[in-house]
C-alpha cells in the first residue's frame, strides 16, 4: 500500500474535525430548541396561572354581584376582630372570600372597624364595604364601658365591672356557683370543658374572662350577658392563636398562658418563658412558678418566701408536679399566643433581676450564679 502524504493526512484530519464541529452544532441546536420549548411552555403556564390569580383577586375585590343592590342587614358585634368580621361578611354573602378580606385589610393596614348595624349589598366593592364599616352606623350611646387589664383574678375583675356598670359583683359570683348555669356555658362554648367543674377549682371561669375594653348597651347590663360577652371574646382570641377551640386542650392552654402572664414583664419574654414551662413538664420537673404560690394563698405576694411555697394546694407548682389544676389569672392575647407556640431552647431556669431584666439559664449552677450577682 502506498503511504499517505502529509498533506493528505492534514486534509483528512481537518475534514474529521469539521464533521465533529457540525455534529456538535446540530446537538447544540437541538438542545437550544428543547430548552427554548421548555421556557416557552413555562412562561405560558406562568401566564395562565398569573392571569387566573389576577382574575381571582380582581373578582374578590370587586362586587359579588354588580346587578344586586338589595340591602343586606349585617350586625358587627362589639369586640369583633378583623377575622370574625370577615367570617360574618362571607356568611351574610356580602363578600366572596373571608380570606381575601383578611389579607386585603392587612395589606392596606386598614383598621378602626366599628360595631353596629349595617345595610350592605352585593354590588359594593371591598373598598366600599371597608369604608362603610369604618364610618357607618356605630354604637355610640353605650350605657357603660369598662377595661380589664391582663393578669387579674376573677375576684379582682368583678368589683371593677360593678364600679363601671353598677351590676353587683355578687351577681357574678352567684352565677359561678350555679352548676346548672355553668353546664349551659360548657355546652355553648367550645373552649369550656368539665375541667372547670372539678372540686378543687377555686373559680370556675378563672382564665376564661378575656381582658379587654368592653362597651355595653343598656340591655347588656346584667351579669350573665357580661360573662358571655367576655367568654365569646376569649373564644375568638383562642381561635386566632390556635385555629382550634377544641375544649379538650384549652384548659391546659389557658393554664399555661396564665402562668406566662404572671411571670412575663414584656412580650419579648413570653415565648421564652413558655419554652421553660414546656421543658420542665417534659423532663418532668416541678414548675416552681411563684405566681402560682400567690394564687394558692389567695393574696398578691410582694415577694415569695420559702415558707410561702410550702402551702399544700393544687395551684401551688412547688407542691404539685406539672401544671396547676387550672388557670391562676385571666391572660391576654400575647400570653395565649406564647402558650400555643413555646420557644424551642434548653433553658430550665429564669430570674427577674431588680433592674427589670430577665436572665435565662440551662443549669441550676448557672441559675444560682445569676441570682448571686444581684443579691
From TrEMBL:
<dbReference type="GO" id="GO:0071555">
    <property type="term" value="P:cell wall organization"/>
</dbReference>
<keyword id="KW-0456">Lyase</keyword>
<keyword id="KW-1133">Transmembrane helix</keyword>
<comment type="function">
    <text>Functions as a peptidoglycan terminase that cleaves nascent peptidoglycan strands endolytically to terminate their elongation.</text>
</comment>
<dbReference type="Pfam" id="PF02618">
    <property type="entry name" value="YceG"/>
</dbReference>
<feature type="site" description="Important for catalytic activity">
    <location>
        <position position="263"/>
    </location>
</feature>
<keyword id="KW-0812">Transmembrane</keyword>
<dbReference type="GO" id="GO:0008932">
    <property type="term" value="F:lytic endotransglycosylase activity"/>
</dbReference>
<feature type="transmembrane region" description="Helical">
    <location>
        <begin position="34"/>
        <end position="54"/>
    </location>
</feature>
<comment type="similarity">
    <text>Belongs to the transglycosylase MltG family.</text>
</comment>
<keyword id="KW-0961">Cell wall biogenesis/degradation</keyword>
<dbReference type="GO" id="GO:0009252">
    <property type="term" value="P:peptidoglycan biosynthetic process"/>
</dbReference>
<dbReference type="GO" id="GO:0005886">
    <property type="term" value="C:plasma membrane"/>
</dbReference>
<protein>
    <recommendedName>
        <fullName>Endolytic murein transglycosylase</fullName>
        <ecNumber>4.2.2.29</ecNumber>
    </recommendedName>
</protein>
<dbReference type="InterPro" id="IPR003770">
    <property type="entry name" value="MLTG-like"/>
</dbReference>
<keyword id="KW-1003">Cell membrane</keyword>
<keyword id="KW-0472">Membrane</keyword>
Amino acid at each position: 500500500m502506498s503511504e499517505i502524504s502529509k498533506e493528505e493526512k492534514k486534509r483528512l484530519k481537518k475534514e474529521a474535525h469539521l464533521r465533529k464541529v457540525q455534529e456538535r452544532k446540530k446537538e447544540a441546536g437541538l438542545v437550544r430548541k428543547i430548552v427554548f420549548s421548555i421556557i416557552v411552555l413555562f412562561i405560558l403556564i406562568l401566564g395562565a396561572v398569573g392571569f387566573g390569580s389576577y382574575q381571582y383577586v380582581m373578582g374578590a375585590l370587586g362586587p359579588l354581584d354588580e346587578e344586586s343592590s338589595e340591602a343586606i342587614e349585617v350586625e358587627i358585634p362589639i369586640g369583633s376582630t378583623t377575622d370574625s368580621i370577615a367570617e360574618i361578611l362571607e356568611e351574610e354573602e356580602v363578600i366572596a372570600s373571608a380570606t381575601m378580606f383578611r389579607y386585603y385589610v392587612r395589606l392596606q393596614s386598614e383598621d378602626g372597624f366599628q360595631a353596629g348595624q349595617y345595610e350592605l349589598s352585593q354590588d359594593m366593592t371591598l373598598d366600599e364595604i371597608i369604608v362603610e364599616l369604618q364610618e357607618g352606623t356605630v354604637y355610640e350611646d353605650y350605657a357603660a364601658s369598662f377595661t380589664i387589664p391582663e393578669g387579674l383574678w376573677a375576684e379582682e375583675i368583678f368589683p371593677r365591672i360593678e364600679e363601671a356598670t353598677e351590676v353587683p359583683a355578687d351577681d357574678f359570683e352567684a352565677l359561678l356557683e350555679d352548676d346548672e348555669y355553668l353546664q349551659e356555658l360548657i355546652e355553648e362554648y367550645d373552649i369550656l370543658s368539665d375541667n372547670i367543674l372539678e372540686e378543687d377549682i377555686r373559680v370556675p371561669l378563672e382564665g376564661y374572662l378575656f381582658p379587654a375594653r368592653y362597651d355595653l348597651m343598656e340591655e347588656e347590663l346584667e351579669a350573665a350577658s357580661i360573662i358571655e360577652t367576655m367568654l365569646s371574646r376569649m373564644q375568638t382570641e383562642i381561635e386566632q392563636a390556635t385555629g382550634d377551640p377544641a375544649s379538650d386542650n384549652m384548659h391546659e392552654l389557658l393554664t399555661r398562658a396564665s402562668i406566662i402572664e404572671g411571670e412575663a414583664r414584656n412580650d419579648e419574654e413570653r415565648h421564652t418563658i413558655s419554652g421553660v414551662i414546656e421543658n420542665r413538664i417534659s423532663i418532668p420537673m416541678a414548675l416552681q412558678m411563684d405566681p402560682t404560690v400567690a394564687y394558692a394563698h389567695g393574696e398578691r405576694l410582694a415577694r415569695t418566701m420559702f415558707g410561702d411555697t410550702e402551702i399544700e394546694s393544687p395551684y401551688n407548682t412547688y407542691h404539685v408536679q406539672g401544671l396547676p389544676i387550672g388557670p391562676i389569672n385571666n391572660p391576654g392575647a400575647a400570653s395565649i399566643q406564647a402558650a400555643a407556640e413555646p420557644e424551642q431552647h434548653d433553658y430550665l431556669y429564669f430570674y427577674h433581676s431588680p433592674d427589670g431584666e430577665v436572665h435565662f439559664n440551662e443549669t441550676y449552677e448557672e441559675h444560682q450564679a445569676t441570682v448571686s450577682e444581684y443579691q
